[in-house]
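task queued by scheduler; priority normal; single chain, no ligands, no partner chains; default sampling; output format set to structure tokens
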Amino acid sequence: WEKHSGRDSIKIYPRKGETWALFKNWDAKWYLLSEEQRKYEYEFVEVLSEYDETVGIRVAHLGKLKGFASLFCQIGKNEIQIAPAEILRFSHRVPSYRMAVDERKDVPKGSFELDPASITMKLEEVSLPKLDERTCVIDLSNSDEADSSVETAKKLASMHYDNEIENSDHPDIDVDGQEVPDSDFFNFDGMKSIDKFQVNQVWALYSDVDSLPKYYGLIKKIDTHRGFKLHIAWLESCYLASDMVLWKDKHMPISCGQFMVKGGRVQQYSSRSSFSHQVRAGQTGKRNVFAIYPREGEIWATYKEWRPDLTCSGLKNCEYDIVEVLEENPSYVKVSVLERVDGFNSVFRHQKSGNSSLTREIPVVELLRFSHQIPSFRLTSEKGGSLRGCWELDPAALPAHVLYKLK
């Protein structure tokens, strides 16, 4: 802990080297549930970095070793970045003792003995592997134990991404060859500076079909030797509800639903120009499967004349509505339609219908109406406060008919 600048206040954050419990499948809306509805499950992590108010904190999952009452060690080789907005995923600190290398022959170096009083719940155990140089990282990335429903969905899912060649010289995706105008106020390029990229983040990348950010990739590795290279694994749609209206064209990009890491080798990028923005990908409880849905407060593009028989070849001629997500529930997503403010390249405000904002309710069975998320910045004091409450949107993620219709 450290003393805060405010009177009689103290800041408490997870510290490097500590062990903590995370809420499994954490949701920021849990506060809406009654105590009877809250059934918490936990997962344990080692904290790998100090908390940073800009990027959050890095952790690594710990698994309970089979045959031991309270002995844990790292599982998997990938680190997890917990963003500042998700800091409440941390439930509580767990007292622990790090085992020394020569403490027991059958105990790997770097293991933790956790306080048994903090781990009374039943946990899945991992077998102690044959250890090389007494390291304590168990790699489960090639495990055959995959959820059967995910495997079934994987077989049925259409393949949207074919670029999986290791050490590829694949060129960075060009944003349709048109000159994208500068934003009026906010520097969106700053959102994808080198320091913003972290392992295990999900990012949206520009599509090579219509130059809009409709592809998703998981950062597997960042190479800073001899320049800067990002190694990503593509994500592909793996589960859509049985009653959801689906595309007839299996090559149409899908931006909502559950996505799993596509097998095969990773793709390398030496430039950040193909990347649009980091995606808020939720946990599903399944390994390497992420949930991506429109979230309250986000800005998305929706297909203006949406219908299931839209084709991938016709995407460049599609028109879109720009909307702010107001509400999400099991039945529909409520949105407010935005319109561009005259005299600005990428400033938008709520479109009015009479004295009220124009809103729509999009049924969850029609979630494929959502084309892609658009990076945004809420304006406050710009232009003497006359634009307060308006949104500035990233011009590179705006459809051409929206971006150029007034030019």
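post-processing summary
- The chain has two domains: 2-143, 149-404.
- The chain has a mean pLDDT of 80.
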